[in-house]
TrEMBL record, chain A:
It holds the Pfam family Complex1_LYR. One of its GO terms (biological process) is iron-sulfur cluster assembly. It comes from Apatococcus lobatus. Residues 6-63 form the Complex 1 LYR protein domain. It comes from the Eukaryota. This is Complex 1 LYR protein domain-containing protein.
TrEMBL record, chain B:
PANTHER family: CYSTEINE DESULFURASE, CYSTEINE DESULFURYLASE FAMILY MEMBER. It comes from the Eukaryota. Its EC number is 2.8.1.7. The keyword Glycoprotein does not apply. Its cofactor is pyridoxal 5'-phosphate. The keyword Membrane does not apply. GO terms for molecular function: cysteine desulfurase activity; iron-sulfur cluster binding; metal ion binding; pyridoxal phosphate binding. Keywords: Iron, Iron-sulfur, Metal-binding, Pyridoxal phosphate, Transferase. This is cysteine desulfurase. Residues 86-449 form the Aminotransferase class V domain. GO terms for cellular component: L-cysteine desulfurase complex; mitochondrion. NCBIfam families: IscS (TIGR02006), PRK14012.1 (NF010611).
Length: 104, 485
């Protein structure tokens, strides 16, 4: 087996890089895709397949690192609504709903 | 926010300062991993990406409660507490980071005109564009020579209909399409009908599917082309491509399909489906806006008249310089779609079921427009009608949800969608429809948030509605004789 530890550290690197994305959707996607990808091949035994998977993962990790910078350079000033708790949002909306005056 | 940006910026600047000396030797010195060099083979001279230094985590992940300053957005008189969550994947999709990564070198160092034959800049650009053509062809099971880059699916549709009709106008005078096709197909057909062609607009069944017998009856000896949309942009109906293709082949009529909404989302093979012409758009499959392609079959050969005169690029069918960065992004998007289709489909299906069941559990009187059978629809498109709710008010209320009432082309008008009308959806239900589009980057939390917000607003609007009150009392609204004013 060519290094379970190496595979594990590669997976951790994806998770570490994912939190650097200011964009909510990309951040979550990198996390999710890394998890499903590593899990999908967890039982893979063929060394040739494992080798190509590792190469692919390393190339993808480089993409993630570069894109984290690009997304940082052009990130929004405002957060995504997904970074606001639902309860706060519902309260705000109830207070400022366009139809609130007519209903109450 | 300013601090991490500042730090990252400073690091980048430092990197740029030394990059000129590092760039030449980075491949050989072993600082760049071998894989990277392999991935970049073909880009020998320039724009080799380097491994990069650390960027700090985004504040939202480090401290979700208070890290980002509260900056209210105000656009069009609507105050937004944050960027709305995006559920309009049929209008357009965000770029995949892998696509941006593939495009960057062409927007910096590799700016050559792919048609320049006299220098390195042209050659490397041409190689990249041809590579992209191969990637597009691979996704649909075609030969790269059958792919022509255009500006998007609208241009491809125009080219297919007008090009084929005009080329064969000596013998063929008839065109068949459906009532639910995209506006650009219908408008091209209308244009041709003003110039002596006869057009048959086939009706569809209440679930949006084409009646195959009706199609076969409509084909005449002088029919030039049949154009049927693969996946409907508003209701997600997936037409039986194989069967339609077989009918067209049997009658020796060209079969064109607008597959903008289908490519990269459902498996497509032009040979299995007997497709002769197909329109593709990059920005519906996480690629850049402004590029698309038309597939034109070579055997048996489909001939068409070019719609633009010019330098004869793309074998004379579509003159004008191919936008190399966009083409490369398009190619990459197709490659990613091919690799990710199984994972994406499983994810999207899970989320679509979650959304539909979540809304149905908490709200009554929701109707899913289009086919109910998941095999006959693209699952990432849920067009729902909320009875007894006024659609515009609902959209106004759901400002934190980027959804639309139908296609982006017609979202400015208050008219109910012509697609829903063609299905026979009643006027009041057509007015209350919302289209939820789910894609690769949609998360479970977003779907849960969308359910909570939709339930809140629909319930609130229904509470205010006198019609809803009557329904609750058991009055059948359809039997009421409204007095005239």
């Amino acid at each position: 087996m060519p290094g379970t530890a190496e595979v594990r550290s590669l997976y951790r690197a994806f998770l570490r890089e994912s939190v650097k994305f200011p964009n909510y959707n990309i951040r979550e996607y990198v996390k999710r895709r890394a998890t499903t990808g590593f899990r999908q091949h967890a039982t893979e035994k063929d060394t040739a397949v494992l080798d190509s998977l590792r190469q692919q993962a390393q190339a993808d990790l480089e993409v993630v690192k570069r894109q984290a910078i690009v997304y940082h350079l052009y990130s929004r000033k405002q957060k995504s609504v997904m970074d606001i708790p639902l309860a706060t949002m519902l309260e705000e909306q109830a207070a400022a709903a366009p139809y609130s005056q007519s209903s109450s | 926010m300013t601090q991490p940006l500042g730090r990252a910026g400073a690091r980048l600047l430092a990197r740029f300062a030394k990059s000129s000396s590092v760039a030449e030797c980075s491949g050989a010195a072993g600082t760049a991993p071998k894989v990277l060099a392999a991935a970049q083979a073909g880009r020998q001279f320039s724009a080799l990406p380097e491994p990069i230094e650390d960027v700090p985590p985004h504040p939202a992940t480090a401290n979700p409660a208070a890290a980002i300053p509260e900056e209210l957005m105000e656009m069009k008189g609507i105050k937004l507490s944050g960027a709305p969550l995006y559920l309009d994947m049929q209008a357009t999709t965000p770029l995949d980071p892998r696509v941006i990564d593939a495009m960057m070198p062409l927007m910096t160092e590799q700016y050559g005109n792919p048609h320049s034959r006299t220098h390195m800049y042209g050659w490397e650009s041409e190689d990249l564009v041809e590579g992209a053509r191969l990637q597009v062809a691979a996704l649909i099971g075609a030969d790269p020579k059958e792919i022509i880059f255009t500006s998007g699916a609208t241009e491809s549709n125009n080219l297919a209909l007008k090009g084929v009709a005009n080329f064969y106008s000596g013998k063929k005078k008839h065109i068949i399409t459906t009532q639910t096709d995209h506006k650009c197909v219908l408008d091209s057909a209308r244009y041709l009908s003003q110039r002596g062609f006869e057009v048959t607009y086939l009706p569809v069944k209440p679930d949006g599917l084409l009646d195959l017998e009706l199609l076969e009856q409509a084909i005449r000896p002088d029919t030039a082309i049949v154009s049927v949309m693969m996946v409907n942009n508003e209701i997600g109906t997936l037409q039986p491509m194989k069967e339609i293709g077989a009918i067209c082949r049997k009658h020796k009529v060209f079969f064109h399909t607008d597959a903008a909404q289908g490519i990269g989302k459902v498996p497509v093979n032009v040979n299995e489906m007997n497709i002769d012409l197909m329109s593709i758009s990059a920005h519906k499959l996480y690629g850049p806006k402004g590029i698309g392609a038309i597939y034109i079959r070579r055997r048996p050969r489909v001939r068409l008249e070019a719609q633009m005169s010019g330098g004869g690029q793309e074998r004379g069918i579509r003159s004008g310089t191919v936008p190399a960065p966009l083409a490369v992004g398009f190619g990459k998007a197709c490659e990613v779609a091919r690799q990710e289709m199984a994972v994406d489909t499983a994810h999207i299906k899970k989320l679509a079921d979650r959304l539909y069941n979540g809304l149905n559990d908490q709200l009554q009187h929701i109707v899913l427009n289009g086919p109910q059978d998941q095999k006959q629809r693209y699952v990432g498109n849920l067009n729902l009608s909320f009875a007894y709710v006024e659609g515009e008010s609902l959209l106004m209320g759901l400002k934190d949800l980027a959804v639309s009432s139908g296609s982006a082309c017609t979202s400015a008008s208050l008219e109910p969608s012509y697609v829903l009308r063609a299905l026979g959806v009643e006027e009041d239900m057509a007015h209350t429809s919302l289209r939820f589009g789910i894609g690769r980057f949609t998360t479970e939390a977003e779907v849960d948030r969308a359910i909570a917000l939709t339930v809140q607003h629909v319930s609130k609007l229904r509470e205010m509605s006198p019609l809803w009150e009557m329904v609750q009392e058991g009055i059948d609204i359809k039997t009421i004789q409204w007095s005239q004013h």
